[in-house]
Write a structure and sequence with these properties.
The chain is mainly beta. The chain contains two helices and 60 strands. Among the domains are: 79 residues, Immunoglobulins (Immunoglobulin-like); 70 residues, Immunoglobulins (Immunoglobulin-like, Sandwich), CATH 2.60.40; 88 residues, Immunoglobulin-like (Sandwich), CATH 2.60.40. It is 1% helix and 48% strand. The chain has a 15-stranded parallel beta sheet that branches. The radius of gyration is 52 Å and the shape is rod-shaped.
Protein backbone atom coordinates (compact mmCIF):
# COMPACT_ATOMS: atom_id res chain seq x y z
CA UNK A 1 0.00 0.00 0.00
CA UNK A 2 1.32 3.43 -0.87
CA UNK A 3 1.81 5.53 2.28
CA UNK A 4 1.27 9.14 1.34
CA UNK A 5 0.82 10.42 4.86
CA UNK A 6 2.09 8.96 8.13
CA UNK A 7 1.03 9.59 11.71
CA UNK A 8 3.92 8.21 13.78
CA UNK A 9 3.94 7.64 17.54
CA UNK A 10 7.53 6.90 18.50
CA UNK A 11 8.68 5.13 21.62
CA UNK A 12 9.35 8.49 23.26
CA UNK A 13 5.62 8.70 23.90
CA UNK A 14 5.21 5.90 26.41
CA UNK A 15 1.41 5.80 26.45
CA UNK A 16 -1.23 7.51 24.32
CA UNK A 17 -4.43 7.25 26.32
CA UNK A 18 -7.75 8.17 24.66
CA UNK A 19 -10.14 8.17 27.59
CA UNK A 20 -13.12 9.64 25.80
CA UNK A 21 -14.30 11.44 22.72
CA UNK A 22 -12.84 10.88 19.26
CA UNK A 23 -9.27 10.77 18.03
CA UNK A 24 -9.65 11.14 14.28
CA UNK A 25 -6.57 10.71 12.14
CA UNK A 26 -8.03 11.56 8.80
CA UNK A 27 -6.47 12.36 5.46
CA UNK A 28 -6.38 10.64 2.08
CA UNK A 29 -4.70 7.21 2.10
CA UNK A 30 -3.35 7.64 5.64
CA UNK A 31 -1.31 5.00 7.41
CA UNK A 32 -1.65 5.03 11.18
CA UNK A 33 1.90 3.88 11.98
CA UNK A 34 2.86 3.05 15.56
CA UNK A 35 6.63 2.93 15.71
CA UNK A 36 7.14 1.32 19.11
CA UNK A 37 4.88 3.41 21.32
CA UNK A 38 2.61 2.10 24.08
CA UNK A 39 -0.91 3.15 23.08
CA UNK A 40 -4.11 2.72 25.05
CA UNK A 41 -7.69 3.53 24.06
CA UNK A 42 -10.45 3.37 26.63
CA UNK A 43 -13.85 1.70 26.13
CA UNK A 44 -15.53 4.93 25.05
CA UNK A 45 -12.87 5.87 22.53
CA UNK A 46 -13.53 5.91 18.82
CA UNK A 47 -10.54 5.73 16.48
CA UNK A 48 -11.17 6.30 12.81
CA UNK A 49 -8.26 5.67 10.45
CA UNK A 50 -8.92 6.74 6.89
CA UNK A 51 -6.38 4.34 5.45
CA UNK A 52 -4.40 1.52 7.05
CA UNK A 53 -3.04 0.67 10.48
CA UNK A 54 0.45 -0.67 11.11
CA UNK A 55 1.61 -1.63 14.58
CA UNK A 56 5.38 -1.78 14.47
CA UNK A 57 8.15 -2.20 16.98
CA UNK A 58 11.28 -0.12 16.97
CA UNK A 59 14.53 -1.76 17.97
CA UNK A 60 14.72 -2.47 21.67
CA UNK A 61 11.04 -1.79 22.33
CA UNK A 62 8.04 -3.97 23.14
CA UNK A 63 5.26 -1.83 21.70
CA UNK A 64 1.70 -2.56 22.75
CA UNK A 65 -1.38 -1.07 21.13
CA UNK A 66 -4.34 -1.76 23.42
CA UNK A 67 -7.73 -1.00 21.93
CA UNK A 68 -10.70 -1.07 24.27
CA UNK A 69 -12.94 1.19 22.23
CA UNK A 70 -14.04 1.10 18.61
CA UNK A 71 -11.39 1.30 15.96
CA UNK A 72 -12.29 1.52 12.28
CA UNK A 73 -9.68 0.92 9.60
CA UNK A 74 -11.19 2.16 6.36
CA UNK A 75 -10.63 4.41 3.43
CA UNK A 76 -13.03 5.18 0.64
CA UNK A 77 -10.21 5.48 -1.87
CA UNK A 78 -7.82 2.71 -0.84
CA UNK A 79 -9.38 0.14 1.50
CA UNK A 80 -7.70 0.03 4.86
CA UNK A 81 -5.65 -2.95 6.02
CA UNK A 82 -4.09 -3.98 9.32
CA UNK A 83 -0.37 -4.84 9.54
CA UNK A 84 1.14 -6.28 12.75
CA UNK A 85 4.91 -6.35 12.42
CA UNK A 86 8.30 -6.42 14.16
CA UNK A 87 7.41 -7.90 17.56
CA UNK A 88 4.54 -5.55 18.23
CA UNK A 89 1.40 -6.51 20.16
CA UNK A 90 -2.17 -5.61 19.45
CA UNK A 91 -4.57 -6.38 22.30
CA UNK A 92 -7.62 -5.15 24.19
CA UNK A 93 -11.34 -5.78 24.61
CA UNK A 94 -12.56 -3.37 21.93
CA UNK A 95 -13.92 -3.76 18.41
CA UNK A 96 -11.84 -3.39 15.29
CA UNK A 97 -13.56 -2.88 11.94
CA UNK A 98 -11.24 -3.92 9.13
CA UNK A 99 -12.10 -2.84 5.62
CA UNK A 100 -9.43 -4.83 3.80
CA UNK A 101 -6.69 -7.27 4.81
CA UNK A 102 -5.25 -8.54 8.09
CA UNK A 103 -1.54 -9.38 8.03
CA UNK A 104 -0.28 -10.70 11.34
CA UNK A 105 3.50 -10.98 11.54
CA UNK A 106 3.62 -10.13 15.24
CA UNK A 107 1.33 -10.77 18.23
CA UNK A 108 -2.43 -10.38 18.46
CA UNK A 109 -3.89 -11.01 21.91
CA UNK A 110 -7.63 -11.31 21.41
CA UNK A 111 -8.77 -10.77 25.01
CA UNK A 112 -12.56 -10.10 24.76
CA UNK A 113 -12.31 -8.23 21.48
CA UNK A 114 -14.30 -8.46 18.26
CA UNK A 115 -12.70 -8.16 14.85
CA UNK A 116 -15.22 -7.39 12.15
CA UNK A 117 -14.16 -7.81 8.54
CA UNK A 118 -16.68 -5.47 6.95
CA UNK A 119 -15.18 -4.68 3.55
CA UNK A 120 -17.02 -4.90 0.28
CA UNK A 121 -14.11 -6.47 -1.59
CA UNK A 122 -12.45 -9.83 -0.97
CA UNK A 123 -10.50 -9.66 2.30
CA UNK A 124 -7.49 -11.76 3.34
CA UNK A 125 -6.38 -13.01 6.76
CA UNK A 126 -2.72 -13.82 6.28
CA UNK A 127 0.85 -13.70 7.53
CA UNK A 128 4.19 -13.59 5.79
CA UNK A 129 5.81 -15.59 8.60
CA UNK A 130 3.00 -18.19 9.17
CA UNK A 131 1.65 -16.56 12.32
CA UNK A 132 -1.77 -17.99 13.21
CA UNK A 133 -4.24 -15.41 14.47
CA UNK A 134 -6.54 -16.43 17.28
CA UNK A 135 -9.56 -14.16 17.33
CA UNK A 136 -12.03 -13.85 20.16
CA UNK A 137 -15.16 -12.84 18.30
CA UNK A 138 -14.74 -12.93 14.54
CA UNK A 139 -17.50 -11.29 12.53
CA UNK A 140 -17.85 -11.28 8.75
CA UNK A 141 -19.97 -8.51 7.26
CA UNK A 142 -20.08 -6.11 4.35
CA UNK A 143 -22.24 -5.70 1.29
CA UNK A 144 -19.93 -6.94 -1.45
CA UNK A 145 -21.70 -8.99 -4.07
CA UNK A 146 -20.64 -11.64 -6.54
CA UNK A 147 -18.54 -14.72 -6.05
CA UNK A 148 -15.34 -12.92 -5.08
CA UNK A 149 -16.45 -9.92 -3.04
CA UNK A 150 -18.38 -11.97 -0.50
CA UNK A 151 -15.19 -13.79 0.55
CA UNK A 152 -13.11 -13.41 3.69
CA UNK A 153 -10.13 -15.61 2.90
CA UNK A 154 -7.47 -17.40 4.94
CA UNK A 155 -4.34 -17.05 2.85
CA UNK A 156 -1.32 -19.25 3.65
CA UNK A 157 -2.31 -19.60 7.33
CA UNK A 158 -4.86 -21.18 9.63
CA UNK A 159 -6.94 -19.09 12.01
CA UNK A 160 -8.73 -19.67 15.31
CA UNK A 161 -11.78 -18.43 17.14
CA UNK A 162 -10.89 -18.67 20.83
CA UNK A 163 -12.40 -20.74 23.59
CA UNK A 164 -14.91 -18.03 24.51
CA UNK A 165 -15.36 -16.46 21.07
CA UNK A 166 -18.13 -16.44 18.49
CA UNK A 167 -17.77 -16.87 14.72
CA UNK A 168 -20.49 -14.80 13.05
CA UNK A 169 -20.54 -15.54 9.33
CA UNK A 170 -23.73 -13.63 8.42
CA UNK A 171 -24.27 -13.94 4.65
CA UNK A 172 -20.55 -13.97 3.77
CA UNK A 173 -18.20 -16.74 2.63
CA UNK A 174 -15.36 -17.67 4.94
CA UNK A 175 -12.87 -19.21 2.49
CA UNK A 176 -10.16 -21.31 4.15
CA UNK A 177 -8.49 -22.42 0.89
CA UNK A 178 -6.17 -25.29 1.93
CA UNK A 179 -6.06 -23.98 5.50
CA UNK A 180 -8.25 -24.68 8.53
CA UNK A 181 -10.57 -22.42 10.47
CA UNK A 182 -10.67 -23.68 14.07
CA UNK A 183 -13.54 -22.75 16.42
CA UNK A 184 -12.18 -23.62 19.86
CA UNK A 185 -15.29 -22.56 21.78
CA UNK A 186 -17.32 -25.78 22.34
CA UNK A 187 -20.61 -23.92 22.78
CA UNK A 188 -23.23 -24.89 20.19
CA UNK A 189 -23.91 -21.19 19.61
CA UNK A 190 -20.26 -20.40 18.84
CA UNK A 191 -21.01 -20.43 15.10
CA UNK A 192 -23.87 -18.51 13.49
CA UNK A 193 -24.76 -17.73 9.90
CA UNK A 194 -27.59 -16.29 7.85
CA UNK A 195 -29.99 -19.09 6.97
CA UNK A 196 -31.99 -17.40 4.20
CA UNK A 197 -32.43 -20.00 1.47
CA UNK A 198 -30.12 -19.23 -1.44
CA UNK A 199 -28.23 -16.50 0.48
CA UNK A 200 -26.70 -18.48 3.34
CA UNK A 201 -23.35 -17.64 4.84
CA UNK A 202 -20.91 -20.55 4.82
CA UNK A 203 -17.36 -21.83 5.21
CA UNK A 204 -15.67 -23.05 2.04
CA UNK A 205 -12.45 -25.05 1.79
CA UNK A 206 -10.29 -26.35 -1.03
CA UNK A 207 -9.13 -29.95 -0.96
CA UNK A 208 -6.77 -30.10 2.02
CA UNK A 209 -8.55 -27.37 3.95
CA UNK A 210 -11.39 -27.71 6.43
CA UNK A 211 -13.60 -26.17 9.11
CA UNK A 212 -13.07 -27.43 12.67
CA UNK A 213 -15.23 -27.22 15.80
CA UNK A 214 -14.62 -28.29 19.38
CA UNK A 215 -17.57 -30.00 21.15
CA UNK A 216 -18.37 -30.87 24.76
CA UNK A 217 -22.09 -31.65 24.74
CA UNK A 218 -24.65 -33.95 23.18
CA UNK A 219 -26.28 -31.02 21.40
CA UNK A 220 -26.29 -30.63 17.63
CA UNK A 221 -23.40 -28.65 16.13
CA UNK A 222 -23.77 -26.92 12.78
CA UNK A 223 -21.01 -27.02 10.19
CA UNK A 224 -22.29 -24.50 7.59
CA UNK A 225 -20.20 -25.77 4.70
CA UNK A 226 -20.59 -24.45 1.19
CA UNK A 227 -18.71 -23.28 -1.88
CA UNK A 228 -18.83 -20.63 -4.59
CA UNK A 229 -16.43 -22.54 -6.84
CA UNK A 230 -18.41 -23.64 -9.86
CA UNK A 231 -22.05 -23.99 -8.83
CA UNK A 232 -22.85 -21.95 -5.72
CA UNK A 233 -23.89 -24.42 -3.02
CA UNK A 234 -24.67 -24.33 0.68
CA UNK A 235 -24.76 -27.91 1.98
CA UNK A 236 -24.72 -27.94 5.74
CA UNK A 237 -23.55 -30.81 7.94
CA UNK A 238 -24.76 -31.28 11.51
CA UNK A 239 -22.97 -33.47 14.02
CA UNK A 240 -24.40 -34.63 17.34
CA UNK A 241 -21.80 -36.21 19.65
CA UNK A 242 -22.78 -39.23 21.72
CA UNK A 243 -21.48 -37.76 24.99
CA UNK A 244 -20.40 -34.52 26.64
CA UNK A 245 -16.76 -35.50 26.48
CA UNK A 246 -14.32 -33.27 24.64
CA UNK A 247 -14.15 -33.96 20.89
CA UNK A 248 -13.14 -32.07 17.78
CA UNK A 249 -14.86 -32.60 14.44
CA UNK A 250 -14.15 -31.12 11.03
CA UNK A 251 -16.20 -30.79 7.86
CA UNK A 252 -15.65 -29.65 4.30
CA UNK A 253 -17.85 -29.50 1.20
CA UNK A 254 -16.16 -30.87 -1.91
CA UNK A 255 -18.13 -28.91 -4.48
CA UNK A 256 -17.25 -31.12 -7.43
CA UNK A 257 -17.62 -34.70 -8.46
CA UNK A 258 -15.73 -36.73 -5.90
CA UNK A 259 -13.90 -38.52 -8.71
CA UNK A 260 -11.75 -35.43 -9.26
CA UNK A 261 -10.37 -35.83 -5.73
CA UNK A 262 -9.74 -39.56 -6.10
CA UNK A 263 -13.07 -40.92 -4.84
CA UNK A 264 -14.59 -42.48 -7.97
CA UNK A 265 -18.36 -42.02 -8.04
CA UNK A 266 -18.78 -45.01 -10.37
CA UNK A 267 -17.35 -47.40 -7.76
CA UNK A 268 -19.82 -48.42 -5.04
CA UNK A 269 -20.93 -51.58 -3.31
CA UNK A 270 -23.67 -53.83 -4.64
CA UNK A 271 -26.33 -52.53 -2.26
CA UNK A 272 -26.39 -49.16 -4.02
CA UNK A 273 -27.32 -48.08 -7.52
CA UNK A 274 -25.59 -44.68 -7.55
CA UNK A 275 -23.99 -41.88 -5.56
CA UNK A 276 -24.26 -38.20 -6.38
CA UNK A 277 -21.71 -36.81 -8.81
CA UNK A 278 -22.32 -33.19 -7.81
CA UNK A 279 -20.61 -32.88 -4.42
CA UNK A 280 -19.46 -34.77 -1.36
CA UNK A 281 -18.31 -33.99 2.17
CA UNK A 282 -15.16 -34.69 4.12
CA UNK A 283 -15.93 -35.23 7.81
CA UNK A 284 -13.42 -36.22 10.47
CA UNK A 285 -13.16 -36.61 14.21
CA UNK A 286 -9.73 -35.09 14.73
CA UNK A 287 -9.76 -35.40 18.53
CA UNK A 288 -11.78 -37.49 20.98
CA UNK A 289 -13.35 -40.92 20.76
CA UNK A 290 -17.12 -40.34 20.71
CA UNK A 291 -19.54 -41.60 18.12
CA UNK A 292 -21.75 -38.95 16.57
CA UNK A 293 -24.89 -38.61 14.49
CA UNK A 294 -23.93 -37.38 11.02
CA UNK A 295 -26.63 -35.35 9.26
CA UNK A 296 -26.05 -34.26 5.65
CA UNK A 297 -28.38 -31.69 4.08
CA UNK A 298 -29.21 -31.33 0.39
CA UNK A 299 -31.62 -29.57 -1.96
CA UNK A 300 -33.75 -32.18 -3.68
CA UNK A 301 -34.81 -29.75 -6.41
CA UNK A 302 -31.26 -29.30 -7.70
CA UNK A 303 -29.49 -32.35 -6.23
CA UNK A 304 -32.13 -35.01 -6.82
CA UNK A 305 -33.64 -37.43 -4.28
CA UNK A 306 -31.33 -39.55 -2.10
CA UNK A 307 -32.13 -42.23 0.46
CA UNK A 308 -28.75 -43.13 1.92
CA UNK A 309 -25.21 -42.19 2.88
CA UNK A 310 -21.95 -43.85 1.88
CA UNK A 311 -18.35 -43.62 3.06
CA UNK A 312 -15.29 -44.08 0.90
CA UNK A 313 -12.77 -46.88 1.32
CA UNK A 314 -14.15 -48.71 4.34
CA UNK A 315 -14.78 -51.52 4.92
CA UNK A 316 -14.02 -52.22 1.22
CA UNK A 317 -11.15 -50.26 -0.25
CA UNK A 318 -11.42 -48.02 -3.31
CA UNK A 319 -15.21 -47.81 -3.44
CA UNK A 320 -18.14 -46.15 -1.73
CA UNK A 321 -19.57 -48.31 1.06
CA UNK A 322 -23.18 -48.14 2.18
CA UNK A 323 -23.43 -46.81 5.76
CA UNK A 324 -26.64 -48.76 6.40
CA UNK A 325 -29.99 -47.54 7.61
CA UNK A 326 -30.38 -43.79 7.77
CA UNK A 327 -33.11 -41.45 8.97
CA UNK A 328 -34.38 -39.31 6.13
CA UNK A 329 -36.35 -36.10 6.57
CA UNK A 330 -38.02 -33.80 4.06
CA UNK A 331 -38.26 -30.05 4.59
CA UNK A 332 -39.44 -27.04 2.61
CA UNK A 333 -35.86 -26.02 1.84
CA UNK A 334 -33.31 -28.74 2.55
CA UNK A 335 -33.84 -32.45 3.00
CA UNK A 336 -31.41 -34.40 5.13
CA UNK A 337 -30.09 -37.91 5.59
CA UNK A 338 -28.92 -38.74 9.10
CA UNK A 339 -26.78 -41.67 10.22
CA UNK A 340 -27.20 -42.29 13.93
CA UNK A 341 -24.33 -43.20 16.24
CA UNK A 342 -21.58 -43.29 13.60
CA UNK A 343 -18.17 -44.46 14.81
CA UNK A 344 -16.27 -45.06 11.58
CA UNK A 345 -14.20 -41.87 11.30
CA UNK A 346 -11.14 -43.59 9.84
CA UNK A 347 -11.97 -42.22 6.38
CA UNK A 348 -13.13 -38.67 5.72
CA UNK A 349 -15.17 -38.75 2.44
CA UNK A 350 -18.97 -39.08 2.73
CA UNK A 351 -21.55 -38.89 -0.02
CA UNK A 352 -25.31 -39.08 -0.67
CA UNK A 353 -26.40 -42.40 -2.14
CA UNK A 354 -29.38 -44.30 -3.53
CA UNK A 355 -30.14 -47.90 -2.65
CA UNK A 356 -30.53 -50.44 -5.42
CA UNK A 357 -34.20 -51.26 -6.03
CA UNK A 358 -35.65 -54.51 -4.73
CA UNK A 359 -35.52 -57.34 -7.25
CA UNK A 360 -38.82 -58.12 -8.99
CA UNK A 361 -40.54 -61.42 -8.28
CA UNK A 362 -40.87 -63.35 -11.51
CA UNK A 363 -41.46 -66.89 -12.78
CA UNK A 364 -41.89 -68.28 -16.31
CA UNK A 365 -44.20 -70.77 -17.94
CA UNK A 366 -43.16 -72.69 -21.03
CA UNK A 367 -44.54 -71.57 -24.38
CA UNK A 368 -45.24 -73.11 -27.73
CA UNK A 369 -43.19 -72.70 -30.85
CA UNK A 370 -44.45 -69.89 -33.09
CA UNK A 371 -47.16 -68.94 -30.60
CA UNK A 372 -48.69 -65.51 -30.04
CA UNK A 373 -50.10 -63.73 -27.01
CA UNK A 374 -47.84 -65.32 -24.38
CA UNK A 375 -48.21 -63.39 -21.10
CA UNK A 376 -45.48 -62.90 -18.48
CA UNK A 377 -46.06 -61.09 -15.17
CA UNK A 378 -43.69 -59.79 -12.47
CA UNK A 379 -44.36 -58.21 -9.09
CA UNK A 380 -42.54 -56.60 -6.18
CA UNK A 381 -41.30 -53.31 -7.68
CA UNK A 382 -41.43 -50.32 -5.29
CA UNK A 383 -43.92 -47.53 -5.87
CA UNK A 384 -43.04 -45.41 -8.87
CA UNK A 385 -40.77 -48.01 -10.45
CA UNK A 386 -41.05 -49.34 -13.99
CA UNK A 387 -40.40 -52.83 -15.28
CA UNK A 388 -38.00 -53.11 -18.21
CA UNK A 389 -38.13 -56.41 -20.08
CA UNK A 390 -36.04 -58.18 -22.70
CA UNK A 391 -36.74 -61.37 -24.62
CA UNK A 392 -34.55 -63.58 -26.80
CA UNK A 393 -33.91 -63.21 -30.52
CA UNK A 394 -36.81 -64.39 -32.62
CA UNK A 395 -39.43 -63.08 -30.18
CA UNK A 396 -41.36 -59.80 -30.09
CA UNK A 397 -42.72 -57.99 -27.03
CA UNK A 398 -45.98 -56.73 -28.49
CA UNK A 399 -47.25 -54.83 -25.43
CA UNK A 400 -46.64 -53.99 -21.79
CA UNK A 401 -42.95 -52.97 -21.63
CA UNK A 402 -42.64 -50.62 -18.66
CA UNK A 403 -45.49 -52.36 -16.83
CA UNK A 404 -45.50 -55.54 -14.79
CA UNK A 405 -47.17 -57.62 -17.54
CA UNK A 406 -45.97 -58.12 -21.11
CA UNK A 407 -47.33 -60.00 -24.11
CA UNK A 408 -44.83 -61.84 -26.29
CA UNK A 409 -45.07 -63.44 -29.70
CA UNK A 410 -42.65 -66.35 -29.62
CA UNK A 411 -40.53 -67.84 -32.37
CA UNK A 412 -38.95 -71.23 -32.79
CA UNK A 413 -36.26 -71.22 -30.09
CA UNK A 414 -36.14 -71.46 -26.31
CA UNK A 415 -34.48 -68.65 -24.32
CA UNK A 416 -34.59 -66.37 -21.25
CA UNK A 417 -36.99 -63.59 -20.36
CA UNK A 418 -35.24 -60.87 -18.28
CA UNK A 419 -36.83 -58.10 -16.19
CA UNK A 420 -35.40 -55.30 -14.02
CA UNK A 421 -36.98 -52.51 -11.97
CA UNK A 422 -36.00 -48.91 -12.77
CA UNK A 423 -37.19 -45.54 -11.54
CA UNK A 424 -37.15 -41.92 -12.61
CA UNK A 425 -33.86 -41.14 -10.86
CA UNK A 426 -31.90 -43.83 -12.68
CA UNK A 427 -31.86 -46.54 -10.05
CA UNK A 428 -32.44 -50.16 -10.84
CA UNK A 429 -32.63 -53.65 -9.42
CA UNK A 430 -30.54 -56.66 -10.27
CA UNK A 431 -31.85 -58.40 -13.40
CA UNK A 432 -34.13 -61.35 -12.75
CA UNK A 433 -34.52 -63.97 -15.47
CA UNK A 434 -36.09 -67.32 -16.12
CA UNK A 435 -35.63 -69.74 -19.00
CA UNK A 436 -38.57 -70.34 -21.29
CA UNK A 437 -38.78 -73.67 -23.08
CA UNK A 438 -40.48 -73.46 -26.44
CA UNK A 439 -42.35 -76.75 -27.04
CA UNK A 440 -43.34 -78.09 -30.45
CA UNK A 441 -47.11 -78.72 -30.63
CA UNK A 442 -48.61 -81.99 -31.98
CA UNK A 443 -49.90 -82.23 -35.55
CA UNK A 444 -53.67 -82.64 -35.54
CA UNK A 445 -55.34 -85.05 -38.00
CA UNK A 446 -58.40 -87.34 -38.07
CA UNK A 447 -60.52 -89.63 -40.25
CA UNK A 448 -64.27 -90.22 -40.28
CA UNK A 449 -66.67 -92.96 -41.28
CA UNK A 450 -70.45 -93.27 -41.06
CA UNK A 451 -72.40 -96.26 -39.86
CA UNK A 452 -75.97 -95.65 -40.76
CA UNK A 453 -76.74 -92.28 -39.37
CA UNK A 454 -73.86 -92.27 -36.88
CA UNK A 455 -70.50 -90.74 -37.80
CA UNK A 456 -67.42 -92.21 -36.16
CA UNK A 457 -64.28 -90.07 -35.84
CA UNK A 458 -60.78 -91.48 -35.45
CA UNK A 459 -57.87 -89.37 -34.10
CA UNK A 460 -54.74 -89.54 -36.28
CA UNK A 461 -52.75 -86.81 -34.50
CA UNK A 462 -48.97 -87.18 -34.15
CA UNK A 463 -46.40 -85.53 -31.86
CA UNK A 464 -47.57 -86.73 -28.46
CA UNK A 465 -51.13 -85.48 -28.27
CA UNK A 466 -52.66 -85.97 -24.83
CA UNK A 467 -55.87 -83.93 -25.13
CA UNK A 468 -58.51 -83.63 -27.83
CA UNK A 469 -61.32 -81.20 -28.41
CA UNK A 470 -63.81 -81.88 -31.20
CA UNK A 471 -66.16 -79.27 -32.63
CA UNK A 472 -68.80 -80.94 -34.80
CA UNK A 473 -70.00 -77.68 -36.29
CA UNK A 474 -73.56 -78.04 -35.07
CA UNK A 475 -73.00 -76.73 -31.55
CA UNK A 476 -71.91 -80.09 -30.20
CA UNK A 477 -68.43 -81.01 -28.98
CA UNK A 478 -66.52 -83.86 -27.41
CA UNK A 479 -63.28 -84.32 -25.44
CA UNK A 480 -62.95 -88.02 -26.35
CA UNK A 481 -60.09 -89.18 -28.51
CA UNK A 482 -62.32 -91.11 -30.90
CA UNK A 483 -65.93 -89.94 -30.54
CA UNK A 484 -69.14 -90.79 -32.40
CA UNK A 485 -71.73 -88.24 -33.32
CA UNK A 486 -75.22 -88.18 -34.81
CA UNK A 487 -75.93 -85.09 -36.86
CA UNK A 488 -79.40 -83.61 -36.59
CA UNK A 489 -79.56 -81.87 -39.94
CA UNK A 490 -78.55 -82.49 -43.50
CA UNK A 491 -75.95 -80.48 -45.34
CA UNK A 492 -72.25 -79.59 -45.17
CA UNK A 493 -70.77 -79.72 -41.66
CA UNK A 494 -67.31 -78.46 -40.69
CA UNK A 495 -65.70 -80.69 -38.08
CA UNK A 496 -62.56 -79.44 -36.28
CA UNK A 497 -60.12 -81.25 -34.01
CA UNK A 498 -57.76 -79.41 -31.64
CA UNK A 499 -55.04 -81.66 -30.29
CA UNK A 500 -52.89 -80.65 -27.31
CA UNK A 501 -49.77 -81.98 -25.63
CA UNK A 502 -48.58 -82.00 -22.01
CA UNK A 503 -46.94 -78.57 -22.45
CA UNK A 504 -50.24 -77.02 -23.39
CA UNK A 505 -49.30 -76.60 -27.04
CA UNK A 506 -52.09 -77.21 -29.53
CA UNK A 507 -52.71 -77.67 -33.23
CA UNK A 508 -56.03 -77.66 -35.06
CA UNK A 509 -57.33 -79.14 -38.26
CA UNK A 510 -60.80 -78.89 -39.85
CA UNK A 511 -62.54 -81.07 -42.48
CA UNK A 512 -65.96 -80.73 -44.12
CA UNK A 513 -68.51 -83.58 -44.10
CA UNK A 514 -71.61 -83.84 -46.24
CA UNK A 515 -74.41 -85.13 -44.03
CA UNK A 516 -77.35 -86.78 -45.88
CA UNK A 517 -79.77 -88.23 -43.32
CA UNK A 518 -82.70 -90.44 -44.73
CA UNK A 519 -85.81 -90.45 -42.52
CA UNK A 520 -88.84 -92.79 -42.57
CA UNK A 521 -91.26 -94.74 -40.36
CA UNK A 522 -93.33 -97.80 -41.33
CA UNK A 523 -96.04 -99.11 -38.94
CA UNK A 524 -97.64 -102.57 -39.66
CA UNK A 525 -101.26 -103.24 -38.60
CA UNK A 526 -101.01 -107.00 -37.92
CA UNK A 527 -98.49 -109.59 -36.73
CA UNK A 528 -98.69 -113.35 -36.03
CA UNK A 529 -96.53 -114.45 -33.13
CA UNK A 530 -96.94 -118.20 -33.80
CA UNK A 531 -93.29 -119.11 -34.07
CA UNK A 532 -93.27 -119.92 -37.76
CA UNK A 533 -90.53 -117.36 -38.42
CA UNK A 534 -92.76 -115.08 -40.42
CA UNK A 535 -94.14 -111.84 -39.06
CA UNK A 536 -93.71 -113.16 -35.53
CA UNK A 537 -93.07 -109.68 -33.99
CA UNK A 538 -94.57 -106.25 -34.10
CA UNK A 539 -91.78 -103.94 -35.29
CA UNK A 540 -91.99 -100.34 -36.46
CA UNK A 541 -89.33 -100.03 -39.12
CA UNK A 542 -87.71 -96.57 -38.86
CA UNK A 543 -84.71 -94.46 -39.70
CA UNK A 544 -83.41 -91.06 -38.65
CA UNK A 545 -85.34 -90.86 -35.39
CA UNK A 546 -83.88 -89.17 -32.36
CA UNK A 547 -86.90 -89.71 -30.05
CA UNK A 548 -89.04 -92.85 -29.85
CA UNK A 549 -91.67 -94.06 -27.38
CA UNK A 550 -94.48 -96.59 -27.89
CA UNK A 551 -97.25 -97.73 -25.53
CA UNK A 552 -99.67 -100.65 -26.32
CA UNK A 553 -103.05 -101.15 -24.58
CA UNK A 554 -105.66 -103.99 -24.67
CA UNK A 555 -109.37 -103.45 -25.30
CA UNK A 556 -109.91 -102.58 -21.64
CA UNK A 557 -107.25 -99.81 -21.71
CA UNK A 558 -104.67 -101.73 -19.76
CA UNK A 559 -101.06 -101.09 -20.87
CA UNK A 560 -99.56 -104.40 -21.89
CA UNK A 561 -96.26 -103.18 -23.44
CA UNK A 562 -94.03 -100.11 -23.78
CA UNK A 563 -90.56 -99.24 -25.10
CA UNK A 564 -88.37 -96.18 -25.72
CA UNK A 565 -86.15 -97.86 -28.31
CA UNK A 566 -87.00 -97.83 -31.97
CA UNK A 567 -85.19 -101.14 -32.44
CA UNK A 568 -87.26 -103.12 -29.89
CA UNK A 569 -89.75 -105.64 -31.27
CA UNK A 570 -92.99 -106.83 -29.49
CA UNK A 571 -93.52 -110.59 -29.42
CA UNK A 572 -97.16 -110.53 -28.22
CA UNK A 573 -96.37 -111.04 -24.56
CA UNK A 574 -97.14 -108.77 -21.63
CA UNK A 575 -94.42 -107.01 -19.73
CA UNK A 576 -94.68 -109.93 -17.28
CA UNK A 577 -93.90 -112.41 -20.12
CA UNK A 578 -97.46 -113.86 -20.42
CA UNK A 579 -98.74 -114.63 -23.93
CA UNK A 580 -101.60 -112.36 -24.77
CA UNK A 581 -104.74 -113.54 -26.53
CA UNK A 582 -105.60 -112.81 -30.13
CA UNK A 583 -107.35 -109.54 -30.66
CA UNK A 584 -107.09 -105.91 -31.51
CA UNK A 585 -104.72 -103.72 -29.51
CA UNK A 586 -104.31 -99.95 -29.39
CA UNK A 587 -100.93 -98.14 -29.60
CA UNK A 588 -99.74 -94.63 -28.98
CA UNK A 589 -96.45 -93.67 -30.71
CA UNK A 590 -94.25 -90.64 -30.10
CA UNK A 591 -91.53 -90.31 -32.77
CA UNK A 592 -89.32 -87.26 -33.61
CA UNK A 593 -86.68 -87.38 -36.35
CA UNK A 594 -83.19 -85.92 -36.28
CA UNK A 595 -84.50 -83.15 -38.53
CA UNK A 596 -87.18 -82.46 -35.91
CA UNK A 597 -90.01 -83.86 -38.04
CA UNK A 598 -92.85 -85.23 -35.88
CA UNK A 599 -93.96 -88.76 -36.82
CA UNK A 600 -96.07 -89.29 -33.70
CA UNK A 601 -99.39 -91.15 -34.26
CA UNK A 602 -102.05 -93.47 -32.75
CA UNK A 603 -103.59 -96.63 -34.20
CA UNK A 604 -104.64 -100.30 -33.92
CA UNK A 605 -102.66 -103.50 -34.31
CA UNK A 606 -104.18 -106.97 -34.69
CA UNK A 607 -102.53 -109.91 -32.91
CA UNK A 608 -103.33 -113.27 -34.66
CA UNK A 609 -101.82 -116.63 -33.68
CA UNK A 610 -103.27 -118.68 -36.58
Amino acid sequence: MKKTTKRIFSHSFAILALTGGISSLASAQTIFFNNGAQIFTASAAIVQVNGGFQNDGAAGTTPVFENNGTMTIANSGTPGSVFLTNGSTLQGDGTIFVEQDWTNDATFTADNSTVNFNGDLQQFITSTIATVTTFNNLTLSGSGVGTTNRKKTLQFVNANVGTNGILTINDRELETQTNTMFVLNPAVTAVTNTATFGAEGFVSSAFGGTFSRATNSTSTYSFPTGSSTGTLRFREVELTPASAATNTFTARLGNNTATIDGFNVTQFDTSMCKVTNKFYHQITRSAGTDAADIDVFYDEVTDGPWDGLAQWNTPTAALWNNMGTITAATAATYNDNKKLGWTGFTESPYILSRAKLADPVFACADVCVNSTGNIFTASGAPAGANYVWSSPAGTTITSGNGTNTITVDWGASSGPIVVIDTNSVGCFSDPVSCFVNASTPPTAAFDTASAGFTYNFTDLSTGGATTWLWDFGDGSSSASQNPSHIFTSNGIQTVCLTSGNASGCVDSVCYTIEVDVFEFINIPNVFTPDGDGTNDQFYINNSGLKEFQIEIFNRWGIKVFESESGSVKWDGRSTAGVELSDGTYYYILKAISVTNKDYSTKGFINLLRN
